[in-house]
Predict the 3D structure of the following.
Amino acid sequence: MSEKYSVIGKNVHRVDGTEKVTGTAKYTFDIVLPNMLYGKILRSPYTSAKIVSIDTSKAEKMEGVYAVVTAKDTIHKKQGIWRRFPELCDEEILCSTKVRYIGDPVAAVAAIDEYTAEEALNLIEVEYEPLPAVYSQLEAIKEDAPQVHDGVELNINVTRHIEWGDVDEAFKECDVIREDHFVCSSQAHMCMETHCAAASYSYDGKLTVWASTQASYYTQVLLAGMLGMREGDIRVIKPPVGGGFGGKFELDSAQFCAALLSKKICRPVRIVLTREEEFTATKRRTPIVYTSRIGAKKDGTILAKEIRGITDGGAYTGMGATALYLTGFFSSFPYKYPNYRYDGYRAYTNTEPTSAMRGFGAPQAVFVGEQQIDLIAKDLGIDPIEIRRINGMVPNYEVPGQAFIQSCGLHQCLDKIDNYIKGRGKLPANRGIGVAAYGFMSGGIFNWFDTPYAFSSAIVKLSIDGKVDLFTGACDIGQGSDTTLSMITAEELGVKLSDIRIHAADTAICPADLGAWGSRETLMNGNACKMAAADAKRQIIEFAAAKMGVNIVHDLDIRDGWIYLADRPERKVSYYDIVREAIRGRDGETIIGRGHYTPHRKGMISPAYSFGVQAVEVDVDPETGKMKLINVVTAHESGTVINPIGITGQLEGAIMMAGGYALCEDQPMDQGKILNPSLADYKVIRSLDMPKTEIIEVDTYEPEGPFGAKEAGEGLTNPTAGAIANAVRNAVGVTITSLPITPEKIFMAMQEKKAKEKKAK
Amino acid sequence: MIKDFEYFGPKTLNEALVLLDKYRDDYKIIAGGQSLIILLRQGLLQPENVIDIYGIKELDYIKSDGKKGLKIGALTTHREIEYSDLMKGSFKVLSEMEHLLSTPQTRNRGTIGGNISHGDPAGDPAPVLMALGANVKLASVAGERILDMEKFSVDYFETAMEHGEMLVEIELPAPPPHTGAAYTKFNIIASDMATVSVASCVTLAADDTCTDVRIALGAAAPRPMRAKAAEAILKGKKITDALLKKAGQAASEEAEPVSDISASEEYRRELVKVLTARVTKEAMSRAKAG
Amino acid sequence: MLKELKLTINGQPYELSIHPRTLLVEVLREQLGLTGTKRGCNEGACGACTVVMNGKSVKSCSVLALSANGAEITTVEGLAKGAELHPLQKAFLDYGAYQCGFCTAGMLMSCKGLLNMFPNPTSDQIRDGIDGNICRCTGYNSIIRAVEAVSRGDYKETK
């Protein structure tokens, strides 16, 4: 027992591993139920139009069609995930009077097979009266812009203001001030499994939904609201999910339409969105335009930052309101700005709604902030690492009025990256290294969803042979929470990982959890699991202490299946034997441990923050502007590492996704129509494009996290676009202020630079 | 969703030609299907009859024609060309081109004949075949005809094939001594279609004078095209960097690119300029080495 | 009009009647219930539907089922031998070469096709070999490490 931990920090096979590598894992996409029908959704071809009439009679008469639903089959509610703010619940899902973007659902069909359902859609006659529309946030906030939602002035959906210190006074004291403009584009989540759901409504009024979701609890509650049912009559089961990345925790059209159709005819209905629907009619990363002003003293101390962000909200609110807030908060990261002001505006437009996506407003903020800090460092003649050292956050730092940061390894990360860059020496021509520093939250504290439950809960139940059933609402969407939480439970209880069987995200048998978003599961649900395991452990130890007849002064603990005296480990009994006896001794009562966690009084944002610094080396072709990612080195700290293979996977996957955001992923539109709604035209990084990756783990311990752990999921998506932009500047001397950083943009900027230099001569 | 159709799976060329003749009003030929199935699913094509020629073994071959030229059967897969021992000397460019084409699964299944018959101006094989001076053999129940590759591609997704005709063979003439060929394509994601591609084949005399040069552009016009103005600048001269630059400029001017989501017209012209010079220089150095 | 189709899948011969429009992936998933093979895009771009057909990796969404008449097909369900996982599967587990797992079947079958061509592929060959498969979770490098380990002979296939 020399090592500190027996389970956590070890390389393990994921608990869902063998079913995934053998193809036996059943996703929602794979579910076939007896008597099941297949659903398809009819969507608006207009960006903005009044629905004059919908005639479904021909479709209903078609052979093989069993149900057609439109808004008239609903209870005429509008849904939204910001339930505390009814005005932000603005989405009918099935539109009654007005469609607001290309892809807005108007009807759904259930038929004997997908072919029939699709043919039936062609028989539904919808008469539209096209209305004027608006396609960008800057157009939307003009006086005479068409209103996306009636009565919402200037199309302003949400505003956010964050301020501390005296920004105006501070700017007066600055030696250098600069103002820059940046444009951050959209991005598709591009989950491998498209949104899908299978719903089965029984004759006795109970609904079961299998959903590809990141938050089965939200799905349950939101469905109840939209269907006029009681939450307890709805069971949402989350099978393995083929990726989420922020795109799957709001109620979606597949879930709602499948449930509504099933409820109408008491037959199971499955709806799988096509890849094209996935690109055009789900949600997407929030595009933002920024104006940012930053001021510093000659010695590199930054005194003030003032930033304005206007986000393109698309047609509905969803989680976009949170992205608006978080981009403002993370624009202050990871630095100790003494004076700071953010003004954020979210404007409705007649485009696909924008919402949460991995990083949740932070990758955009970091793209802006990390370029600007490099630029002001250049103005000041200070090394980019040095300026980050001067201003970087430190442990126990309080972001005034906003957040309290306990563990923080930013400075160690800066040192590691500094060493790496120095070790690279002088680079060849047209090569450059760019750096970006970042921080991210371990789950949000806010409760706009208005849940009365603890944010995370877990139950541990012991079998007679000591095996453990762990019940939790946490949602493994591929990120590996089932494994991480099983490891935490096994460590706390002192058993082997293989002793744990996890049952997660089935709302009928698991306690509620807010789901997989905001990088919250490890810390929040990890704390709940640890507490539940500790509760069970206490019950066993009580019995063991009596059984072993130990002196009251001794502490007992469990590790590796042995119950032992903490200071005399050679005195031990088998955990497995004791459980059997303890249950007998309790009149056969099952041993159950309970745990829950809600972050109380931990600041406004999050109970803990992770930090890191990334260096990206790029090579730019000086004649074409083509940029190649050579190497990505990340110094990162996430508190105690629970699952090292998991963290490596999160990091490398984040680089694929954030590198794609920087290089090639975009959703260009023409008059509100997305021009590349297919994987042939939407480019993602593939294996040949993927750079080398190195991870340097920096050791920290987070007092608020289970065994000292904190987030390691979304934060890693934050630095890459900014680091790449800085690397391009380092390589060829041009600043690209808009995403994605295409070869054409680099080429044009180089041409412009050459022309300027010529003129100067 | 694919609309249903009648399916025919001829096993010989003759059977296929008879079917083409019989259903000449409404059929679609499918070979590897790597492009066609997407069009079927998008509903862009809804043929009554689909004639699947993939099973015609007699059209799957690569052979030397005895004069050091090559004959490639239309149903030879990209993969077979990529790894064929016959891709030597200036034909090596064919295997290099195939290696850049799409993804392994597509190369395993897709055929060179299917690719050029699809008529996508951004396809990889056509510019290379044009630079190598290839001819294509078309067959119908009426007989065969041979067409210069240049004349085969007509417009976006349109070829010179008549109803009732199918592509059966690609013929590559034996290159003269001191010939070198090279291909390059510009894209952002490695497996992607070309934003612009350029193939070049250069023949040098003993004193390094360029006696022949063929430059072909992909994704730079509604069809793969020869850059003849660029060629004229180089032909008969000793190629220098300055001349290559001029040739690039000429190619960029004679190209007919369009703007789309991948690149603007202006940027495509810049790419043609740079890549023409680069790839011709590479072809030249291969010609010298060969 | 339905057409007859014969094929051998994971060593088991099948005779089926299908609509000519039916794709190979639809036969596997919908008619035979072999749902290990996924469908991510329906347009030959993502590789999730990759199977090995007559020894080579192909995208089963881009093959008409009738065109596969007489073929020998291996899907992810046919990789393991009884209770013994295939070396690729063992390596994927050890190296954490999957997360959400939705691309994994296709990824494994691309790797199987690669090993059929090159029993000991180089890193570059592996990178090229999986370029037709999108993975949105792992960033590919763990998959490459896993296949490198197989290539090195760290995992012996039981005969």
About this structure: The longest strand of chain A covers residues 302-314. The domain at 455-597 of chain A is CATH 3.30.365.10 (Aldehyde Oxidoreductase; domain 4). Chain A has three domains: 31-131+191-244+248-280, 353-443+607-760, 455-597.
